[in-house]
Design goal:
Elements lengths: L2 E3 L6 E3 L6 H6 L8 H15 L2 H10 L5 H23 L5 E3 L1 H12 L6 H20 L2 H8 L2 H23 L2 E4 L2 E5 L5 H18 L5 H18 L35 H24 L15 H18 L4 E3 L3 H6 L5 H12 L1 H8 L8 H10 L4 H4 L4 H17 L3 H17 L6 H19 L1
Helix pairs in contact: 2-14, 3-4, 3-5, 4-12, 4-14, 6-11, 6-12, 7-20, 8-9, 8-11, 8-16, 8-18, 8-19, 9-10, 9-16, 11-12, 11-20, 18-19, 19-20
């Protein structure tokens, strides 16, 4: 600790932290934000993704993984990785267990292929190690640099549509059979009503430039939901705090329970490749898609991206050691970014709130999923490209831009949209008689391989 000495008495006392030290460390003013905005953004992101602490253990329990174990692991790794993302990478991304991966592990790797959950965690571990290796070798950064502008815009568009789809699916407006859109649901379900009210509230608050509009909307819809539930309105039935899994020794049973020796099983290699590719390119899509139209990308390159990618890969390996599946940069980070978050301070706030979930879990269970849906739709549409970005594109680039979000909507996934996007981007270079970047071509080939492997299981 630095000290200063009184010139009168000679007494030494702690030197006060200069005003603006927080601003200086996180480059808050430099990125066009304020401390208050960052704090509100962090809280908004936390509320938007807090459902993962309910949903992830529920999904993994279908494969025989103890609920309390995966709950402990999910909260712990989410908090640690998100705080590290904020303090080290200094970026506004929340990190948690990805729904695109835990379902694959639970229902395909364990359910269909017959691996034990300990073996499945071993495969998650090796996919994380592989991601750390390719990140340290700067391969992931070279892949990002190989992506042409049209594909970057397409990734942003696809991430935006994925956010909207999450809201549409959770509200019941869209009905999916597995991952395929099969029809439309009720327009007046409780979740749908929450979506309408939340979205309208955000638009109204934004119209009057009210700070924290997204956070105010989420809190307001939560209060409205409970008021309607207390009056016995049909369908409004918030979860009881008593439904929270109890603290027990079983929570720690996943620590070190993975089976690294699964690497010796030939069947495991294809699974590790799929886990690696989904996480590898999913993180690339989110880092680009969530920041493309912000001050973070003003120089054309995301600052701290290598550190962010290391947090992603290292976090996945650590998650398996604790007892849960791969972690990813969460797409709901868009809620905080949409609320103005531009620095690691918002991630730090979100990570601290995650850590407090061990104490506040009963309150988290009282936040209805519907309270966040309006925010997801609002932020999703903000990621859509503007007309001036679309107009100068070549026909094949416009095809890329249109096809990626349409495939996202049809399949409820980002990886299939990325397959089409990367393939079309490579073909675009060929049609324009340009040199095809080897990392772009290699990415397209790997994504095709991943899709074939997933289809074969």
């Amino acid at each position: 600790m630095e000290v200063q000495v009184s010139p009168v008495t000679g007494e030494a006392f702690p030197k006060p932290i200069p005003r603006g030290a927080l601003d200086s460390y996180f480059s808050i003013s430099e990125r066009g934000s304020t401390t208050a905005t960052e704090v509100l953004a962090g809280v908004s992101t936390f509320l938007a993704l807090s459902y993962i602490f309910v949903v992830n253990p529920a999904i993994l329990s279908q494969a025989g993984i103890p609920t309390s174990m995966s709950l402990f692991a999910t909260i712990t790794i989410s908090a640690l990785a998100t705080i590290l993302m904020g303090v080290w990478a200094k970026l506004p991304f929340a990190v948690s267990t990805g729904l695109e991966i835990n379902g694959y592990v639970a229902f395909v790797v364990i359910g269909a292929m017959g691996f034990t959950w300990q073996q499945a965690l071993g495969m998650v571990f090796w996919s994380g190690v592989l991601m750390v290796i390719v990140t340290l070798a700067s391969i992931r950064e070279k892949v990002i640099d190989s992506i042409p502008d049209a594909l970057k815009i397409g990734l942003s568009f696809s991430v935006g549509m994925f956010l909207v789809l999450i809201a549409m699916k959770l509200s019941g407006l869209f009905v999916y059979e597995g991952l395929i859109l099969s029809g439309f649901g009720s327009l007046v379900s409780p979740a749908a009503i929450c979506l309408y009210v939340g979205l309208a509230a955000i638009l109204l608050l934004e119209r009057f430039r009210v700070l924290g509009s997204v956070l105010i909307s989420i809190i307001g819809v939560t209060v409205l939901y409970h008021v309607l539930a207390s009056r016995g309105i049909a369908g409004f039935t918030p979860a009881a705090a008593s439904s929270t899994p109890a603290m027990s020794k079983e929570m720690f049973s996943g620590i070190g329970a993975l089976s690294p020796a699964v690497l010796l099983d030939p069947r495991a290699l294809s699974v590790i490749l799929v886990l690696f590719i989904i996480d590898f390119y999913g993180s690339v899509a989110k880092l680009i898609g969530l920041t493309l139209r912000t001050t973070l990308m003003a120089s054309g390159k995301l600052p701290g991206r290598e550190k962010a990618l290391l947090v992603d890969g290292g976090g996945t390996a650590a998650a398996s050691l604790l007892g849960t599946t791969s972690v990813v940069a969460f797409v709901e980070s868009a809620v905080g970014i949409g609320a103005g978050g531009r620095t690691g301070l918002s991630a730090l706030v979100c990570g601290v709130l995650m850590a407090l979930c061990f104490l506040a879990m009963p309150f988290i269970y009282l936040i209805p999923v519907g309270a966040t849906l309006g925010a997801l739709v609002y932020v999703g549409f903000r990621l859509c490209p503007a007309y001036d970005q679309w107009k100068p594109m070549a026909p094949i680039d416009k095809l890329t831009l249109i096809s990626m979000p349409l495939i996202t909507i049809a399949t409820f996934s980002l990886d299939k949209a990325m397959v089409v996007g990367f393939v079309l981007a490579a073909l675009s270079a060929v049609f324009k008689k340009q040199r095809v970047n080897p990392y772009l071509a290699g990415s397209a080939a790997l994504l095709v391989v991943s899709m074939v492997l997933q289809a074969s299981f």
